[in-house]
Specification:
- It is a single chain.
- The chain is α/β, with parallel strands linked by helices and 282 residues long.
- It has one domain (4-278): Rossmann fold (3-Layer(aba) Sandwich), CATH 3.40.50.1820.
- The protein contains ten helices and eight strands.
- It has helices spanning 40-50, 76-90, 105-115, 137-144, 148-166, 172-203, 208-215, 235-244, 257-262, 264-278; strands spanning 4-8, 11-19, 25-30, 54-59, 97-102, 120-126, 221-227, 248-253.
- Strands 1-2-4-3-5-6-7-8 form an eight-stranded mixed beta sheet, with helices on both faces.
- Helix 3 packs across helix 7 (208-215), helix 4 (137-144) packs across helix 6 and helix 5 (148-166) runs antiparallel to helix 6 (172-203).
- The radius of gyration is 18 Å and the shape is globular.
- The mean pLDDT is 91.
Length: 282
């Protein structure tokens, strides 16, 4: 997997294209909150299984991974501008994409579909945090009230326990591996990650249900594939979205959304559902 960098108006963005850059079907992935590419292994496998007619685009949000961390408000406009400029840099022919949004990326994906309905052929949401319900109110108010440092310390202190809960008490090795990736990013660019996380908590849109209901009027097919015991973005959120999206299919899989991506037997089922959906005729 070779990472490239695109110089955008707000800074450099690290991205990777799996498979054929000019494939007939391109899949644009909006990833998780801290390190959007923490599921690279899954997407390598998905790309291999989809075959030559498909390519997959992965990238780091600003403030994460190998991308720059520009100053500014990390709000919807900020995230949209990065995505818009990146795909224009990669393909200047204004083509459309199949879109996957998992965890925080689900919120990015729904806003992208809202702003650019012509660019989204099919939409997959999995364990989409901050998509039906916004981020927890406490994270918003603590940043608004000048308690950002307190929130940031508490956030990371609670992380190991949250991961254990989120993974439904997995083997410690899974948690250790997740934290290893997070800590490696922090060791290089803690100030960047801190800025990105806190600014997103404070400035990201909270009109989540309005956005979901707006894109529901579009005739594109939507797959909601979700862990039925998801502790981060509860399964009831997926059912609520399914109820308002007439062209959606809801598939409940056993486990939390992190389990689905990173635990082999659950990842296999998730991959099968995605392949089936992506290869369906419109």
């Amino acid at each position: 997997m070779s990472t490239q960098k695109a110089q955008l108006s707000n800074g450099k963005t690290a991205y990777t294209i799996l498979g054929n850059r000019n494939a007939k079907h391109l899949v644009l992935v909006f990833g998780g909150f801290h390190f959007p590419r923490n599921c690279d292994a899954f997407f390598n496998d998905l790309n291999d299984s989809l075959g030559f007619d498909y390519g997959i685009i992965l990238y780091d949000y600003f403030g994460r991974g190998e991308s720059d961390a520009p100053d500014g408000l990390y709000d919807v406009n900020f995230y949209m501008k990065q995505a818009e400029e990146l795909i224009h840099e990669i393909h200047k022919d204004h083509r459309s994409y199949d879109v996957i949004g998992y965890s925080f990326g689900g919120s990015i994906a729904t806003h992208f579909a809202y702003r650019h309905p012509e660019k989204v052929n099919k939409l997959i949401l999995s364990g989409a945090w901050g998509t039906w319900e916004p981020f927890p109110a406490a994270t918003y108010w603590m940043t608004k009230l000048g308690m950002s440092n307190v929130l940031y310390k508490a956030y990371w202190k609670a992380m190991p326990g949250a991961l254990k809960k989120g993974f439904n008490q997995p083997d410690q090795a899974i948690i250790d591996n997740m934290l290893k990736v997070e800590n490696e990013i922090i060791s290089r660019t803690e100030g960047n990650l801190k800025k990105a996380i806190l600014s997103t908590f404070r400035n990201f849109a909270r009109n989540t249900q309005e956005i979901v209901k707006s894109i529901a009027t579009h005739p594109r097919k939507v797959l909601l594939v979700w862990g039925d015991n998801d502790q981060i973005a509860p399964y009831k959120f997926a059912k609520a979205m399914h109820a308002v999206m007439p062209h959606s299919t809801l598939v409940g899989l056993d486990g939390n959304h992190n389990d689905l991506w990173l635990v082999p037997d659950k990842a296999k089922k998730l991959k099968q559902e995605m392949i089936k959906f992506l290869k369906e005729e419109n």
